[in-house]
Amino acid sequence: MNTPPLTDIRRTVTALSEPALIRLITEIDDNGPIPPRSMGRIFPDFTPQQIRHATERAHTIGLIHTRVGGGLGLTESGVLLAEVYDVTARWARRHAYPAPAGDFTGRVRHTFALMSEVRVHAALTAAEPSLGRTGTGIPLPEPEVVEPGLAGPWRLLMQWLRANPQAAGFAAGELAA
What is the rounded distance in angstroms from the CA atom of residue 24 to the CA atom of residue 93? Predict the structure, then answer.
């Protein structure tokens, strides 16, 4: 299995962890296409600029498309990313990560960050069997929980990243700009 370099993974999961992007993708996945001019009503907790930025990012990466009549729908890549988000959030909820109470977006963001930690990534790629603590201030689950439990979400994320190299290219270009 060819895993992208950790620096690429970190850049990409940072780009995919934007709260407005997570919410946009999961909203369309859960409720279907978003009608034209409905974004402000659907996402009242985000500014128009945040919504526009997330929509532009999703278009650029190839996660959404404009449907006939102007609504936004998910591409196949967007549907698959929504599944990665769902599986990741379920793992986090099941393991009370990063805390017993939390929202979907926070769980996805923290778990993506966890998967891009050097020692966790090494354990998941079988390069290092023990995990320990990362010093991030967020306690990691015990190694026996991370390796077998996190392997499912990690594999889905790696499959998605390999199938969508444009996401890594976008993240690298965005950070370099």
Answer: 20
Amino acid at 111: T
Find how far residue 88's CA is from the centre of its chain.
Answer: 8
Q: What is the domain partition of the chain in residue ranges? A: 6-13+78-164, 15-74
What are the residue ranges of helices labelled H in the chain? 6-16, 19-31, 39-42, 48-61, 76-94, 104-115, 118-124, 143-163, 165-176
Question: Cα(first)–Cα(last) distance of the chain, in Å?
Answer: 31
Which CATH number, 1.10.287, 1.10.8, 1.25.10, 1.10.10, labels domain 15-74?
Answer: 1.10.10
pTM for this entry: 0.83
Q: Assess whether pLDDT exceeds 90 at residue 26.
A: yes
